Amino acid sequence: MSSLRQLRRRCTSGIVHGAVSLAPFAPDFALSLAERVLGACGPHAPKLAAIVRKNMIATKVFTPDVYRRHFNNVARHLTNGLRILSNRDNPGRIRELAARDIDLDDSIQSGQGDIERDGGGLIAPAHCVNYLISLVRLNQSMPVSIYLRWSKDARKVELKRRWCQAAGLDVIIEPSKLTNPAARAELIIEAIRAGRTVAITPDLAQRASEGVPVHLLGRTAYLPSGPASLAMLAEVPMRPLFARRDGNRQVLYFANPIRVQRLPRSDGGRTESVRRAMQAWTDGFEKFIRDCPDQWFLWGDNRWTRAIQGDPAYSTPIDESTNAMDREAIRR
Hints:
alpha/beta
C-alpha cells in the first residue's frame, strides 16, 4: 500500500472515530445540517466522486440524477449511523428513525414465516445504502443476528459492536484467536440451528484466486463462497435482501429464496453447488444494481473499482454465449 493511501486511510479513520465520539453530544439539527452538507459536497469530493462516476459509467447506469441521489443516500446513511449512536439510550427514538426512512415489502412477512417454519435462516443482503438503519427496521419485524469478524483494528470491531448494541441487534462476535474457517462456520451454523436469523453480505469483491466466479455486469467477477456454503451446511435457503426507492423512502424486499442444491461429483460436487447458488444470488444483485443504482453503497469501494474497471486480478470479460449456458445450468 502506498504511503499516500496509508495516510488517507488514517485520516479517514480518525475522522470517523472522532465523529462517533462526538455523536452522543450532537443535537439532531446538527446531524441534519451535516447530512445536507455531505450530500451537497459528495459529488464534488476530489477522489471519491471521480471513482463513483467512472464506475457508474462503466456499468452503464450513470445519469446525473442517479449520481446525485447516490451521494444524498450516502449522506443519510452516514448520519443515520451517528443518530443511532446519539440515541443509544433511547430505543424508541431509534425505532422512529427507522420507521421514518424504511418500509418493508410484503415479501418480508412471507419470508419471516418461512424462516420460522425452517427453525432459523440465513439472509444474504447487498450493501444497500442506509443499511445501518434498515437493519434496525428489519429487526423490528424479524430479529436479526449480525456476525462480526475479528480484526486487528480493535477500534473498528468495537465501533461495530457499539452500533449493533445501540441498534438492538443480536451480535455474534468472532473470538480473537479463531483462525480455523471450519470453526467460524460452525459458530454461524449453530446460531441458525438454534433458531436465529443470521445476516451475511455476499457483495464483497474478491480476488480471482480467492472467490467464486460469477457472471456480473458483462464480466466474470468473484464473490465469497461463505453464504452459499453456510446455507448448504445449515440446510436452509439463502434469502437475498435488496432495496428499492419509493419517493423519499427505501423499501426492503426479499428476492426468491435460493436453495443450495447438493450436486454429485460427476456434476461438479460442492464447488459447483456453491457456484450455482452464488450465481443465482448475483442475478438478483445485478437486477438490483440496474434497477436502483443509487441504492448501492459500494460504488466507491476499492475492490469493486478494480473489478468493474477490468483489473485481471479481480475480473475478466465473458461472452454472452457462455453467460447464457451458465444461466441455463442454474435453471436446471
